Amino acid sequence: KTGEMAKLTQLIDNDIFRAYATYATIVLLKMMLMSLVTAYFRITKKAFVNPEDTASFGKGENAKKYLRTDPDVERVRRGHLNDLENIVPFLGIGLLYAFSSPELSTALLHFRIFAGARIIHTFAYLIPLPQPSRGLSWAVGYAVTVSMAYKVLKTALYL
Amino acid sequence: KTGEMAKLTQLIDNDIFRAYATYATIVLLKMMLMSLVTAYFRITKKAFVNPEDTASFGKGENAKKYLRTDPDVERVRRGHLNDLENIVPFLGIGLLYAFSSPELSTALLHFRIFAGARIIHTFAYLIPLPQPSRGLSWAVGYAVTVSMAYKVLKTALYL
Amino acid sequence: KTGEMAKLTQLIDNDIFRAYATYATIVLLKMMLMSLVTAYFRITKKAFVNPEDTASFGKGENAKKYLRTDPDVERVRRGHLNDLENIVPFLGIGLLYAFSSPELSTALLHFRIFAGARIIHTFAYLIPLPQPSRGLSWAVGYAVTVSMAYKVLKTALYL
């Protein structure tokens, strides 16, 4: 099976695919960070949702008071969900875009702007920055994804 | 690197991969539309969740009254989450299915039914249509994904 | 187009890609099961969120009392969302990892541990098992994904 193995290696040697792999991994790692930020706020603000998570605080009413929502925790969770809603389309459409023969420089531009927009979006959401910071950074990532989708459909359309 | 570039192009020349690229992009764009519908209802119904989003309505109690949930906004958000829960499996399993040597006509049938079912599901959720419209359209998309998963495991199983 | 078709077939002949296809499909099917578990609890506990879902229970107040949240339903939904947050990164990073020329045995180790951790996480969440069962199984899947991301970036980094 050395033949096929070589072919898989060749794909990762393609610059466009490498760029996609790099930026897709970066935005996914950024999204994964939201889990750690949520955990950090749940622990420091003592705001949990599962009874079994408060067992170490004792029993009965003593533990029950930590089963509550906290604005900071909820804010991170909304940012996390917004990541899912926007990074999933980027993952799928971006992969197909990488196979639709874009110019390397154009592809890099799309990937870099998307990743930058989502990182800014995260800061805008968590600090939070005044609007329209969050709205604009969201819109930029959205527009980049639509632009890649247009290229995919133009190249591959097969209904 | 012209060699590998050519290979990437060849993939998008494959009819099954093109069909997958087309329908995956369509359902992802449809899912992305849910963000715009949510924003539309948040603005028209004046129902926001982040304090910084209501700053333009003034300060204090005047802005605070727009920090509220609205049934229409919540309905769109549930439709959006249901999309995530069902389109993510389609994206992953569908891509692997495209590589499992299905008949082109069979693959098209799967992709078309899934995309159609999810579009009907969206209308059934947002209008809303009486049940079992939403339940059935959900089940059809679910069954199509399970059928593709069966083909993937039959072809590729390597534990 | 026989040439390209053959190439698609060759990909599924690669052992690492087959292992990825197998484990990605397994964790996605597991995630899809959460929808059925949610539906099961919604029906058995009579706890719905959409008015059109309770129409069969009659009209007015009689149906309205079933529009409520139930702790068991909410627990399954949290498990489902946690799956999305963790399985989406695995899908994307795992696919790129499969193309980054890992050793087959190393790749299998990553895929098997991730799938096992997510299955344990589901049981830990739904039964529920006392902590740190859920926390640990979550962390193991998280660490495996970070390990694959490291390999992808080491192999493919192209900023």
Automatic annotation (TrEMBL), chains A, B, C:
Keywords: Acetylation, Endoplasmic reticulum, Membrane, Mitochondrion, Mitochondrion outer membrane, Transferase, Transmembrane, Transmembrane helix. The chain crosses the membrane at residues 20-41, 84-101. It is found in: Endoplasmic reticulum membrane; Mitochondrion outer membrane. Gene3D superfamilies: Membrane associated eicosanoid/glutathione metabolism-like domain. The gene is Mgst1. Conjugation of reduced glutathione to a wide number of exogenous and endogenous hydrophobic electrophiles. PANTHER family: MICROSOMAL GLUTATHIONE S-TRANSFERASE 1. This is Microsomal glutathione S-transferase 1. The keyword Transmembrane helix applies. Belongs to the MAPEG family. InterPro entries: MAPEG-like_dom_sf, Membr-assoc_MAPEG, MGST1-like. Homotrimer; The trimer binds only one molecule of glutathione. Its EC number is 2.5.1.18. Its main location: endoplasmic reticulum. SUPFAM superfamilies: MAPEG domain-like. It is an enzyme of class 2 (transferase). One of its GO terms (molecular function) is glutathione transferase activity. It is a multi-pass membrane protein. One of its GO terms (cellular component) is mitochondrial outer membrane. It catalyses: RX + glutathione = an S-substituted glutathione + a halide anion + H(+).
